């Protein structure tokens, strides 16, 4: 018996060494963003049932919101170009290993959130640009996600750390729901216990009421087209009405021609 073990020992050692090298090779050859997202999502979701898709969405949204700092400038621009390192910074901030969270605006926060969801296997995640009928046509970036459990779409906003619900039923709402419903029937929520337009539920101190003006129109990719579809509520938005800002007069469709190349859809009427 001992002789057999002596004979087998070198082979076992070789197998163990090879297995360790193979694991290291796979880890090393995986894309850097995938490695970074593995650490980040595992840490964020360590106490979450991953079969509860709604809870996964909300927990990841909280995690992106709480581990980024809303800011413009050079650091934000660098972070947008170096996503793996930005995700690693978020993880280190979450672990309290660094003092400052990485800087990000709404578009980068949405990108980080979207990458996290897609890494976990949620493929039907759409980036939505919400647009306000103001002189500058202010916009804001959020995600519209299909919940596999309910079969319904949900808007999640990592900057404001909110989703939207119908007040009476508490049903989560997608982008078309938001654009067609009366906003008096809508509530923004950080979670079921914290809802309301004037609830200060963000670490950046921004009230959800600031978002109301952007719930008028949205540019969204629905097909393989490189251009977005513009959908809007005609009672709150007119993509062809001209506005003047800094001595320039133009409509939204003149300002953002690429968003109007596909059919522009008035959700309250017929496609134009």
Structure description:
- The chain is of the alpha+beta class.
- The chain has two domains: 30 residues; 236 residues, no CATH class.
- The chain is 36% helix and 19% strand.
- α2 runs parallel beside α5 and α3 packs across α6.
Task: Give structural attributes.
272 residues; 9-stranded mixed β-sheet; 36% helix; 13 strands; 2 domains; alpha+beta; two-stranded parallel sheet
Number of domains: 2
Number of helices: 8
Distance between the terminal alpha carbons, to the nearest Å?
84 Å
- What is the residue-mean pLDDT, rounded to a whole number? 87
**What kind of sheet is the major sheet?**
9 strands, mixed
Helix content: 25-40%
The percent range for strand residues is 15-25%
Sum up the overall morphology in one term.
globular
Give helix and strand order, one letter per element, not per position.
HHHEHHEHEEEEHEEEEEEHE
**What's the alpha carbon Rg, rounded to whole Å?**
23 Å
Structural class by SSE content:
alpha+beta
Physical arrangement of strands within the biggest beta sheet: 8-7-6-5-4-3-9-10-13
- The low-confidence parts are none
Could you give the count of β-strands?
Answer: 13
Give the topology, please.
Elements: H1 2-29, H2 32-44, H3 53-66, E1 69-70, H4 74-81, H5 83-94, E2 103-104, H6 106-119, E3 125-131, E4 139-146, E5 153-157, E6 162-166, H7 175-180, E7 186-191, E8 194-195, E9 217-220, E10 229-232, E11 243-245, E12 248-250, H8 252-255, E13 265-266
């Amino acid at each position: 018996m001992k002789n057999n073990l002596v004979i087998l020992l070198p082979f076992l050692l070789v197998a163990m060494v090879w297995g360790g090298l193979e694991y290291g090779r796979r880890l090393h050859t995986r894309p850097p963003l995938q490695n970074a997202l593995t650490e980040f999502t595992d840490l964020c979701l360590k106490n979450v049932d991953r079969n509860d898709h709604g809870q996964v969405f909300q927990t990841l949204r909280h995690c992106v919101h709480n581990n980024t700092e809303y800011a413009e400038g050079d650091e934000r621009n660098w972070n947008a170009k170096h996503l793996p390192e930005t995700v690693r910074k978020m993880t280190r901030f979450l672990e309290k290993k660094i003092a400052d969270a990485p800087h990000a605006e709404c578009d980068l926060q949405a990108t980080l959130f979207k990458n996290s969801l897609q890494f976990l296997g949620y493929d039907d995640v759409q980036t939505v640009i919400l647009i306000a009928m103001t002189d500058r046509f202010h916009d804001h970036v959020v995600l519209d996600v299909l919940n596999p459990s309910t079969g319904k779409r949900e808007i999640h906003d990592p900057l404001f750390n909110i989703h939207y619900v119908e007040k009476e039923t508490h049903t989560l709402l997608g982008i078309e729901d938001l654009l067609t419903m009366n906003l008096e029937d809508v509530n923004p929520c950080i979670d079921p216990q914290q809802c309301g337009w004037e609830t200060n539920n963000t670490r950046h101190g921004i009230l959800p009421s600031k978002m109301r003006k952007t719930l008028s129109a949205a540019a969204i990719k629905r097909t393989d087209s490189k251009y977005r579809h513009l959908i809007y509520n005609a009672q709150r938005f007119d993509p062809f009405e001209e506005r003047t800002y800094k001595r320039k007069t133009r409509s939204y469709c003149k300002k953002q021609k690429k968003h109007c190349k596909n059919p522009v859809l008035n959700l309250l009427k017929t496609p134009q």
